Amino acid sequence: MRVLITGATGYVAGHCIAELLASGYSVRGTVRDLRTADVAHLRALARGTGGELEFVEADLADDSGWIEAVDGCAYVWHVASPFPSTVPRDEDELIRPAIDGTLRVLRAAESSDSVRRVVLTSSGAAVHYGHDSDRVFTEADWTDPGKASPYAKSKTLAEKAAWGFARASGLELVVLNPGTVLGPMLNTDVNTSLELIRRIMRGALPVVPKIGWDVVDVRDLARLHRLAMETPSAAGNRYIAVGRFMWAQEMASVLAGRYRSHGYRIGTGAMPYWLMWVISRFDPSGRLALTFWGREDRSSAAKAEKELGWTSRPPSDAVLDTAASMIELGVVPRR
Length: 335
Hints:
Blueprint: E1 2-5, H1 11-22, E2 26-31, H2 40-49, E3 53-57, H3 66-70, E4 75-78, H4 92-111, E5 117-121, E6 136-137, H5 150-169, E7 173-178, E8 180-182, H6 192-201, E9 207-208, E10 212-217, H7 218-230, E11 238-241, E12 245-247, H8 248-259, E13 269-270, H9 273-282, H10 284-290, E14 298-299, H11 302-308, H12 315-329
Parallel strand pairs: 1-2, 1-4, 2-3, 4-5, 5-7, 6-14, 7-11, 8-10, 9-13
Antiparallel strand pairs: 10-12
């Protein structure tokens, strides 16, 4: 069976491709431009497994190419979505592309005779923002768009649009809501979720801000995509994908325990709020980090564990494997 994965060169998409190839599926990945797309690491995965992998051009901002992309595919995994490292000046820079791109993919899937189900990668950001962090969130919870950051708002509204389209059209849809995704890199592109680990490992954070997230390993998230695709009863459901909540300071301590003896200057002290506030005046990524300060949003993956038989490895493993891959790929200098 052939599976279409959108945004094939992305971090999560790469591991989804690896999961599918290792499980015997054929994969078709979308890229914006075949001439410039960096797919060497993905072709290496296909050679290693002997699996079938092809790429087609399709842009989430353009209607062309999507009908051809889904043709002959039994399943579609819509993984691609912008994840900015800064707070945009205009929230519509995130919101409109997220909604419009999602609906383009779903319309193409619904019009195809071959597509059986769509698995949509949403986010935990569509679950818990705009609410007090005094309880454990589940799939029944939704972010309040009126109280959310532009990114969380974009993920929430895009997911709601997807569910609305699925109800109206009868398209079979499953949605995954992952926490912060960490784990080994497949190439040298450092996305927003990995940037904190890179900064800690390079000694750029002598003190660590009071921010934290529910962490999920990218390999476990890829496996959950496959389980959501293969399990008949998953249709029409949301599934939260998280391991355990970790503060950034705990991540730094885990990394220090492994790498300080190898010469890495890893800070583990607590950054005071006033310093984070000052940094945010000059560093756009600091302004984004400030929106997470002190929030301890915890979600439950019990539904995925019970209904799909999913398990997740300890978040500390994801943190350490992220760092190891950064060293291996040269993103962090080898000491």
